[in-house]
Amino acid sequence: MKKIIQIARLELSLLFYSPIAWLMLLILFVQMSMGFTPKLPELARGQEVSGLTDRLYMSLDYGGVLSAILDKLYLYIPLITMGIISRETSSGSIKLLYSSPVKLSQVIYGKFVAMLVYNLLIVGVISLFVAVGAVYIPHFDYPHVLVALLAIYLMLSAFSAIGIFVSSLTTYQAVAAISTFVALGFMNYIGTVGQGVDVLRDLTHSLSMPDRTARMMGGLLNSRDVIYYLVISGMFLAFTIAKLELERISGTLMQQVMRYGLIVAIGLTVTYVSSRQQMIGYYDATATKQNTISKYTQEILKKMGNDPVEMTEYINGMEDSYSKATPKQRIEDIARWEPYLRFKPDIKLKWVYYYDSIPGITEQLKKQKVTFNYYVMFMSNLMKLDLRKFLTPAEIKQQINLEGENARVVMQLKYKGKTTFLRTFSPDNYFWPKEAETGAALKRLIVNAPKVVFATDGYQRGMDKIGDRDYKTLTNTKLSRGSMINQGFDVDSVSLEKGEIPSGIAALVIADPKVAFSPVALAKLGKYIDQGGNLMIAGETGKQSVVNPLLDSLGVKMLGGTLVQESKDYSIDLVVPNLAAGAVAMTPELQPYYLRKWVVSMPGAAALSYDPNGPFMVHPLLTTNAESSWLKNGKLVLDSAAATFDAQAGDQRGSYPTALMLSRNRNNKEQRIMVSGDADFLSNAELSRMNMQTINGGFALGVFKWFAYGEFPIDTSRPETKDNVATLTKTSVKTLQVFYYGIIPGAIFLLGLVILIRRKRK
Length: 762
What we know:
The structure is a single chain. The protein has 762 residues and is an alpha/beta fold. Strand 5 (410-415) and strand 6 form a beta hairpin. The longest helix has 33 residues, at 104-136.
C-alpha cells in the first residue's frame, strides 16, 4: 500500500507540474460559471418556485448545472490520462518498471489513485457552485446533491480507468487521447445498439453509462449502478495490468485471449448478478422521495404477498400508439415498472405485438375501396415492421378480447385469476399511466371495485355522452387519465322507473332531473336512503320544484332564484364558489387547494339551505363569496342589461353554500350524501374549461373518494417541497458574479501559474 501511495504522489506531482491539469480545471469552472451565474438574478426576485435544489442543479428541463455539465465531462479525462502510461512507453522507462521490484499492479493502482485524487478536485470545483445553493436556499436538499456528486465521481473514475488502459496501448499521447475519446463515446453510445433485438438489448444496456448516471442524478442511489461503475473501473485496470504483464513475458495470442476473456467473464457475471431485482438495494435521497412509490402503493403490493402479478402489454402495430412502445423502447418500459419491482420483484412483464383494425378505419377503407390486408401491408412497409413477429387479428382474438380499448397500447394485469386493464392516455403529454392509475389497477386485483350508478330517468345527464352538459369525461372516457374508470371505479346506469337500484354500490347519482319522479321511483329511492345508501343529488336552478321533493327527507332545500357573481370577463351566472373547510374534512388531499383559495366553476347554480337540527350532520363543501355574489330573486335574463343587486326586488347578499355533504350512522356504517345546487360542475365542458383555473375534476374525484370511503382514487400524495425560496438579494448576486466570473477563475489561474513557474525554476 505504501508503494501505491508513493507512486500516486509522484504521478500527482507530474500532473500538476504540467499546464494541462490546471487548464482543464479552469475551463471546467468557466464553462459551468457561464451556465450557472446567469440564473442567479432570477433567484433574487424572491418568487416561490417548487423544488429549487432539483431545478437549479439536476433538472434537465430547466438546465440544471450538474446535469448540463454531465454530458461534457468525458471531454476532460482523455487529456489527463493520455500520457499516464504512454509516456512511460515512449521514454523507455517502462523497461525499468518491468525489471523493478515493484509489481505492475502496484504501478497501475498508484496511477489510478492519482486520478481518483484529481477527480476529487474536479468534484471540488463543481461543489463551488453547489455552495451557492447551500448558503442561499433554506431547506437545501443536501442528500440529493451529494448523491449527484457521487454519481459524477464514479463516472469520472470509470472514465479514468478506461483512459489508463487506452494509454497503455500506444506510445503516442495524442493517439491515446483520441482513442480515449472514441472509447468513452462508445460507452455512451453502446446502450442504443440492438435495442430492437431481445438477445442484444439487455447486454448492450448493461454496458451503457448515461442511464445509470442520470438515475443517480435524479436522487436514486442503488447498488446495481454503484457496482457497475466499480466493475467497469476494475475491468479496465485489469486489462491494463494484463496487457503490460503479457508484454513482459511475451505471452502467446491464446494466453492473451484467455486472460482478457476471464476478466470480461468475471466482470459481466458480477454485473449480471448485481442487476437482478432481488439483489438491488435502493436509497432515495430526495426530500420528497420522488423516486419511490408512495407508502399507500407499497401497502397494496405488500398485501399481494408472494403470489406473482402478470403484466401483459398489448401493442397494435397499426395504431399510432405503437410508436411509444416499439421493441427499441423496451428498456424504458421496464424502467417505468422498476419502482414497483423494487417492492414486488415477482411482477412478470410480457409484451405481445399484434396487428388489427382501428376504430373508424374500416369505413375509410371502404370509401377508398382498399382492403384491410392491403392497408396492413402498406403500413408495415412504411414502418418497416416484420409481420412475422406480430399476431394476426384472429390470433389476438383467441388470446384476449380488446374490443372497446380503441386498439391502443393497453396493459392487462392478472393476479390470482383476476384481471383488469391499465390504459395509456391521449391526448396526454406523458401517455403512460402514472402511479395513481397503476396503483388503482393493482388495488382492483385485491379488492372489489366501488361501483357508482347513475340514474337515467327524467332526462338526466348521461355518463356515456360527449355533449357539453354530460359526464363521459369524468366517468367513462378510457383515454382520459382522470376518468373514474381509470382511477379504480366501476360505473353503471339504472332506470329508477323500470329497474332496481343495485345493492352494495358506492353511490347512486341523480344529476339534473328535469321531470318529477313517479311514486314508484320515489318509493325505491326512499327505501334506498332509509337503508343507508350513499347518494348524490345535483340539481339545477329553475328545477327546484323537481329536486326539493327528493331533498325533503334530508333536511335540505334548494332556494328559489339564481346565484349571480360580478365579473368583468364572464357571464354573471357563472358562479365560482371556493372550497369550504368541509371539503378538506371530506378529502384531505384537497387541503392545498383550499389554502390557495381555488374555485369550482358552476354555471347557473342554485343556493342551498339546510336544517342544522335535521336527521343528518351537514357541512358546506362549496360557498360563494359574499362580496361579489348574491342570490338573484326571480328569473335571471342574461341578454338584458347587466344584473345589479336590488334589495327591493328580493335580492339577498351573503355567502351561500352551493354543495353540502350529509352524513349519519345507519346500519353500522356511515351513510354519505352529497347535494349540489348545480349539475354542470361535473360536465364535460366544465372539466375541460381552459379560461379559468378551477379544481372541478379534483373536487369531483374527491366527492367519489368520500363515497368509496377512501378506497379510490388511491392516495399518491407526497410531502411538499420546502426548498422553494432563495434568500439571494441583488447585492449578493453582484458579489457572486464578481467571484464566479473573476476572482475564483483568476485564483485557479494564478495558483497554477505560480506552481508551474516554481517548478521551472527548480
